[in-house]
Amino acid sequence: MTVASNVNQCLATIRAIEAQLSSLALTSLDEEAKRLFHETMLEIGDIKKDLQSRKTELEFEEPQYKPN
Predict the structure, then answer these.
(1) The whole model's pTM is what?
(2) What is the DSSP letter of 64?
(3) Cβ of 14: how many Cβ atoms within 10 Å?
(4) Burial 25-53 (b: 16+ CB within 10 A, else e)
């Protein structure tokens, strides 16, 4: 598996985690749990942005990793 494949797989996983946390924040009945799910979702969103930036850098530095 290439570096680009690993990064793309990681991004997909992070997006799924972010979506699940959002769903949990919206459906939880416990206010403290809602708050924690929401805060964690925001942190995961920051991680996703950082990873997306790294993916862009990787594609720029290593043309073979650019999607077709």
Answers:
(1) 0.82
(2) G
(3) 18
(4) beeeeeeeeeeebbebbeebeeebeeeee
> Which residues span the domain enclosing 30?
3-55
Residue-wise pLDDT tens digits, 12-45: 999 999 999 999 999 999 999 999 999 999 999 9
Answer whether 58's CB lies under 8 Å from 3's CB.
yes
The per-residue pLDDT for 39 is 98
In a domain, 46, yes or no: yes
pLDDT at position 15 is 97
Q: d(Cα 32, Cα 39) in Å, to the nearest integer?
A: 11
Alpha-helical regions (H) of the chain: 3-27, 31-61
Domains: count for the chain: 1
